[in-house]
Predict the structure.
Amino acid sequence: MSAELISKYFPNLTTVQKNQFDRLEELYAFWNAQINVISRKDMDTFYERHVLHSLGIAKIMEFSAESSVLDIGTGGGFPGIPLAILFPEVQFHLVDSIGKKIKVVNEVAAALDLKNVRGTHARAEDVKEHYDFIVSRAVTAIDGFLPWCKGKFLKEQKNALPNGILYLKGGDLKEEFANVKVPYTIHPLNNIFSEDFFETKGVVYLQMT
């Protein structure tokens, strides 16, 4: 499955963006052979399960220019790298506690000339900056994730939604989020993407300001 899948759902990509998405697979194949950041079998469905899945967030929230986004537990750069390609005017800070994964993030960002990506080897708890949004892709259950986000949001609002969290998650979301005390909305991705992979996937928006 090729980068054409991305154009199917995001038809207004610039030539630069199309080229960047096209190059993602070869870059990750190269780095994955050295530092395992994506399961080998998932490389066969790379654009569907990693790139398009990450961009599910963009179908819920179109970040305004000059917004700042923190990607917690980014691994090899998901959802941060695909989102940074789609939103070149938005600043993305990708953090992970595993240094070799951040090496991949920074190498991929440099190869694609993504000036809006910064990768940092750090635990989420140790990040002291403030952001408009925090994104993540199922790094842990939400009750474990929320404490990592505490105190990291800007007060000023720049976007259509109040500052908060956009969390990619699968499975029984209603059960997992039953005890969450902040306002949240579950957006099923099977309403947006037709591929079977998205049948049980969703984006959860949690308002944090």
Q: What stands out?
A: Strands lie at 68-72, 91-96, 117-121, 133-137, 164-170, 184-188, 201-207. The chain is about 35% helix and 20% strand. The domain at 4-207 is CATH 3.40.50.150 (Rossmann fold). The mean pLDDT is 94.
